[in-house]
């Protein structure tokens, strides 16, 4: 059956909160449901920091938060997540606050979402919906935009359950979920599926172009160093400090959605490509991680990963555990053969008490962590040395003789090693004493063997 105009219009109304350009930002309530009894999905994280994070995330989109609260749950009620008494109590709050949007920092089934919307007479979005909204606002490259659109459509497809019927009519189709009528669900789903297929094709094309760029880059085989970390850990700031770049570093969650690449010269002259990537967040749904796989290919292909942590955040241990888990999900192996080297960068030490920083620095030998402040630059030099050491091995002192037939290697040697003394011998050979990294030494041996 061919969808009629009304149905097409309904599916076109798959707009985002961000796309609703109104004069006033939406008034929103932020709720963080936490189960009182059962083991929470992340026992490391305190309820206050969960609330702070949810408010921070919600603040990343253009809304006015009029109320926020932790909601302790004794049990999960399948139809509404919250128990009926709580749903009613919250309905009172939503109405008295005149909120149009309720952000529930938890996964909601489509049925729960629909029932809560009915009960509260407001739009309800869950954590995934919120993250998609933020991603939608941040994506800047074609690939980033397409990825977010695709993730959004896939999310909506699972949610086409007569969700907006009366709200849509009340407010004139401003919801970002289409399909106001139950009879239209099938047609809407088909329209969404068509859009998904189209987007996937387009994305494929964009990716092919990028792969081409990457293989060109591979011809000059500089190692790739990827910055990863929890959102707001300070990756972009560090990226700027390391490369002297002036890319934006705002107090803005997920400011970097698309990978940014820049060349960086290490203290002993080795060139690397530094890549800044999307920030991670806890409870990032697997299908969202999958949507960003392509963007994160830089991370997968990196020779070295810098895991940036905001050590001033009381929650940083839980955040680090999340980042490590997501890296594993993406396929990064940090142990065994073929594993990727990872250095932890303990950032924002300028915000920590002197003694804490001192004890961190004292432990530097036993951990692979480097304490730094991306804003003041403290520790950054040591970080660069650690990157070089990890990629190139130690600096060693060697006496080397270059035979007459290998004179063409002399230039290379001067570029890659620090020459302390040179003796030009009668037979035409050159004896050198130099400092060279282990990596360059094995490179030299390969060159001389040819
Ligand atoms: N005091 C202090 N603030 C820092 C430091 N590094 C970053 N910041 C601040 O932390 C905030 C987040 O920094 P970003 O560099 O945007 O963080 P990010 O990890 O790239 O964030 P996402 O794009 O969300 O992944 C900004 O306000 C920075 O100024 C630091 O070493 N010290």
Descriptive notes:
It is found in: Cytoplasm. Residues 182-216 form a coiled coil. GTP binds at residues 229-236, 254-258, 276-279, 347-350, 373-375. This is GTPase HflX. The structure is a single chain. The chain is 42% helix and 19% strand. It folds into three domains: 5-193, Rossmann fold; 220-392, P-loop containing nucleotide triphosphate hydrolases (Rossmann fold, 3-Layer(aba) Sandwich); 395-449, no CATH class. The strands form three sheets. The protein has a six-stranded mixed β-sheet, with helices on both faces. Strands 2-1-3-4 form a four-stranded parallel β-sheet, with helices on both faces. Residues 1-22, 161-180 and 246-252 have low confidence and may be disordered. The protein contains 16 helices and 13 strands. It is α/β, with parallel strands linked by helices and 450 residues long. The longest helix is centred in the middle third of the chain and has 34 residues, at 185-218. The protein has helices at residues 5-12, 47-58, 84-96, 110-120, 127-138, 142-157, 165-171, 185-218, 235-243, 286-291, 297-300, 316-330, 354-362, 380-392, 409-416, 438-449, and strands at 26-35, 63-73, 101-104, 123-126, 224-229, 260-265, 271-276, 304-310, 341-347, 369-371, 395-402, 418-424, 430-437. It binds guanosine-5'-triphosphate (GTP). Guanosine-5'-triphosphate binds next to helix 9. Guanosine-5'-triphosphate (GTP) binds next to helix 9.
């Amino acid at each position: 059956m061919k969808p009629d105009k009304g149905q097409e219009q309904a599916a076109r109304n798959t707009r985002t909160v961000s796309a609703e350009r109104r004069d006033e930002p939406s008034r929103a309530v932020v709720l963080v449901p936490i189960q009182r009894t059962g083991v929470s999905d992340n026992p490391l994280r305190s309820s206050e920091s969960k609330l702070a994070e949810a408010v921070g995330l919600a603040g990343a989109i253009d809304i006015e938060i009029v109320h926020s609260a932790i909601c302790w749950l004794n049990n999960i009620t399948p139809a509404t997540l919250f128990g009926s008494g709580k749903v009613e109590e919250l309905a009172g709050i939503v109405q008295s606050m005149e909120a149009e949007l309720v952000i529930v920092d938890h996964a909601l089934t489509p049925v729960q979402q629909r029932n809560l919307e009915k009960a509260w007479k407001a739009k309800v979005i869950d954590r995934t919906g919120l993250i998609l909204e933020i991603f939608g606002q941040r994506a800047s490259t074609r690939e980033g935009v397409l990825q977010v659109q695709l993730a959004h459509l896939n999310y909506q497809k699972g949610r086409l359950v007569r969700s907006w019927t009366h709200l849509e009519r009340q407010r004139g189709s401003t919801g970002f979920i289409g399909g106001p009528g139950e009879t239209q669900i099938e047609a809407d789903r088909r329209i969404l599926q068509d859009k998904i297929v189209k987007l996937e094709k387009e994305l494929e094309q964009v990716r092919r172009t990028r792969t081409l760029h990457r293989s060109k880059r591979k011809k000059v085989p500089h190692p790739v160093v990827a910055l990863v970390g929890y959102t707001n850990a300070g990756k972009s700031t560090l990226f700027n400090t390391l490369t002297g770049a002036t890319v934006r570093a705002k107090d803005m969650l997920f400011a970097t959605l698309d990978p940014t690449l820049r060349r960086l010269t290490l203290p002993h002259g080795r060139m690397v490509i530094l890549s800044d990537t999307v920030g991670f967040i806890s409870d990032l749904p697997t299908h969202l991680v999958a949507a960003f796989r392509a963007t994160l290919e830089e991370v997968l292909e990196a020779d070295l990963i810098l895991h940036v942590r905001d050590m001033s955040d009381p929650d940083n241990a839980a955040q680090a555990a999340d980042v490590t888990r997501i890296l594993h999900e993406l396929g990064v192996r940090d142990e065994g053969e073929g594993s990727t080297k990872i250095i932890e960068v303990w950032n924002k030490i300028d915000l920590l008490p002197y003694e804490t920083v001192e004890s961190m620095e004292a432990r530097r030998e036993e951990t692979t962590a480097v304490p730094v402040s991306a804003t003041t630059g403290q520790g950054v030099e040591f970080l660069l040395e650690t990157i070089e050491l990890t990629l190139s091995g130690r600096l060693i002192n060697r006496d080397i003789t270059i035979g007459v037939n290998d004179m063409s290697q002399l230039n290379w040697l001067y570029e890659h090693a620090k020459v302390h003394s040179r003796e030009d011998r009668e037979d035409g050979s050159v004896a050198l004493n130099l400092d060279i990294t282990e990596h360059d030494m094995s490179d030299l041996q390969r060159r001389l063997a040819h």
